Amino acid sequence: MKAATVPEPPREKMFSNARLQGQHFFLSGMHAGGSGGIVGGSDTYLQSRETFRRIKELTEACGGTVDDIITLRIYLTDISDKALVGKARSEVFSGDFPCSTLVEVSRLVVDGLTVEIEAQGIIGAAHQD
């Protein structure tokens, strides 16, 4: 897997940002947090755009494309922001969108984060009929 430009790599022996098992890839929950603060501040749309950028980077590092993503799990601290996430998602995906689950949670790992997204897929899935 090639290196991806996702800030704050996971702590050693704790977890991985991405795993590749055969052609299947699994991405840990991505968000817009980093050592310089939260990309997008308190704006859920901007946080979502950054989160999807990181998902795209990691997917490509696994050898895939965003069209190979099969499923997303989206965690929001305010369910009324779902349209903002949807807007950011529509800027990344086209055609057949991934299956998706969206739930409201009380908090995320860093205060101020409003969205976190997990993704998984199969390399080459976009080209299968």
Tell me about the largest β-sheet: 5 strands, mixed
Q: What structural class do the secondary elements suggest?
A: alpha+beta
- What do the pLDDT scores average to? 90
Strand order of the largest sheet: 1-2-7-5-6
List segments where confidence is low: pLDDT < 50 over at least 5 consecutive residues: none
> What string, H for helix and E for strand, traces the elements in order?
EEEEHEHEE
| Overall 3D form | globular
What's the total helix number?
Answer: 2
What's the SSE blueprint?
Blueprint: E1 18-21, E2 24-30, E3 33-34, E4 37-38, H1 44-61, E5 69-76, H2 82-90, E6 99-104, E7 115-122
Parallel strand pairs: 5-6
Antiparallel strand pairs: 1-2, 2-7, 3-4, 5-7
Structural overview:
The chain has 129 residues and is of the alpha+beta class. The chain has two helices and seven strands. The chain has helices at residues 44-61, 82-90, and strands at residues 18-21, 24-30, 33-34, 37-38, 69-76, 99-104, 115-122. The strands form two sheets. It has a five-stranded mixed sheet, with helices on one face. Strand 1 (18-21) and strand 2 form a beta hairpin. Helix 1 (44-61) crosses helix 2 (82-90). The longest helix is centred in the middle third of the chain and has 18 residues, at 44-61. It is globular. It starts with 17 loop residues before the first strand and ends in a 7-residue tail after the last strand.
